[in-house]
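hi! just following up on the protien thing from before. the input was this:
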Amino acid sequence: MGCINETIILDDWKEIAKEKVLEKLLGLNTIFIPHRSAEVYSGYPILEDSLGIPFFGNRALLRAEERTGPYKVEKDQDYLVKLAGVPIPKKFSSPEEIDRPVMVKATKAIGKRHFERRFPVVRSPEEYEAKCEELVKKGRTESERKTIEANFRAAPIEEYIPGEKINLNFFYSPIHNELELLGCDTRMQFPNGEELAHQPASLRESKIEKAFEMGERFVCATRKEFEPGIIGPFALQTVADENENLRVYDVSLRIPGSPDTEFTPYTGYLYGISVSFGRRIAMEIKEAILASRLEEIVT
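and the predicted 3d structure came back as:
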């Protein structure tokens, strides 16, 4: 139905790297499009090393999204945003420095949802220790409890800014050497912090130029450290501070979890029609094939 031509049903995400599955995918001239579920349920070694099919985007960048846990790399997203010189919340090097509300950006790193992100807010070194103890007690085994504590204490600590949040959903095209703003969105959450819904949003016009500047700086930073840098979709998740600045607190280095981008006005201005991330990726692939430049957008 719709855009689905064929399905391959597996018992587990990891089976995508099995020889018989890869043979079928290669036979179908498949180009793999990375997304968060693939990262979570397949695991990075599979996506980076075992998925022997063309991969839309820069697969070397995927792990840079992780700040803690077994898949963290040294040059992670925090390193890249700092290199890019975009506005970010204040960072704290140790819990003893906490003198205001801060977020502890620790992943759960256990069980099936070991990439789960619920960032607790604490206001003092004492609250930091209490929150760590509270989370550790939720571990089901001694091994899990040790993992939770290790990841909590290794997690970045950054200033909590209680402003409005808006995601800037970009697409960098190597074919056109151009950065596009596909759309903006914001999110609603349940009281427990779990995601509830997405809402499309349009950024105030006077802030659009600043948004592009932030996106372009980030593209350049990824080029320096993960050549050829960003290919295709990514998002800068920002929070608006009291001085009307947008500060980047998180980055998506693949298709963002933002299904509403086509319902914002930006692609309509550029293309005359609303364009989703999926359609924009398809457009890029088609142009690359017609221009014999496919190797520039896959890794």
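Residues 109-115 have pLDDT under 50 and may be disordered.
The chain has nine helices and nine strands.
cheers
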